[in-house]
Write a structure and sequence with these properties.
five-stranded mixed β-sheet
């Protein structure tokens, strides 16, 4: 599959840049997130495509090793300096029926941001195997409902 251009809405990009700026310079995840922002086409929220992953989107994913799951991409909780390390394996949580929280400051969250439905990413697991994770659906995207200031 040909990798499509990343698209991120301006409000998310501004908030994410502030998040990046609040982290130490040697923070690997903050550096990775900033690289995504640099690569992305930044658009106004009202011009954001409905088929792209944005902050606070609810996603339905299928992993080649982890199976089906639903996640909501969110900002870290500033009170807990949350850094959800669900990057390596999502297998253990895939049997739950509700959408799970997916922090943007995780390798999976960073990798999904700005991608379209149908795109796949490869995520290394602790055992050295890769889980190929596909975006099957965006169940809810705030921009699609005019919710620009969440």
């Amino acid at each position: 599959m040909t990798r499509q251009c990343l698209i991120i809405n301006r409000l998310d990009a501004d908030r994410l840049q502030r998040l990046i700026d609040s982290h130490q310079q040697d923070d690997e995840l903050a550096t990775r997130l900033e690289s995504r922002l640099i690569q992305a086409e930044i658009v106004d929220p009202d011009q954001f495509p409905a088929d792209r992953v944005s902050m606070r989107s609810q996603l339905r994913l299928t992993g080649s090793r982890s199976g089906e799951s639903e996640w909501v991409l969110h900002y870290p909780d500033p009170l807990h300096e949350e850094r959800m390390e669900i990057s390596r394996s999502i297998t253990a949580v895939c049997e739950r029926e509700t959408a799970l929280p997916l922090c943007i400051m995780s390798p999976l969250g960073i990798a999904l941001l700005g991608l379209p439905i149908g795109e796949s990413i490869s995520l290394p697991e602790d055992n050295g195997e890769n889980d190929v994770i596909r975006i099957d659906a965006i169940v809810h995207q705030p921009e699609a409902y005019g919710m620009f200031h969440l």
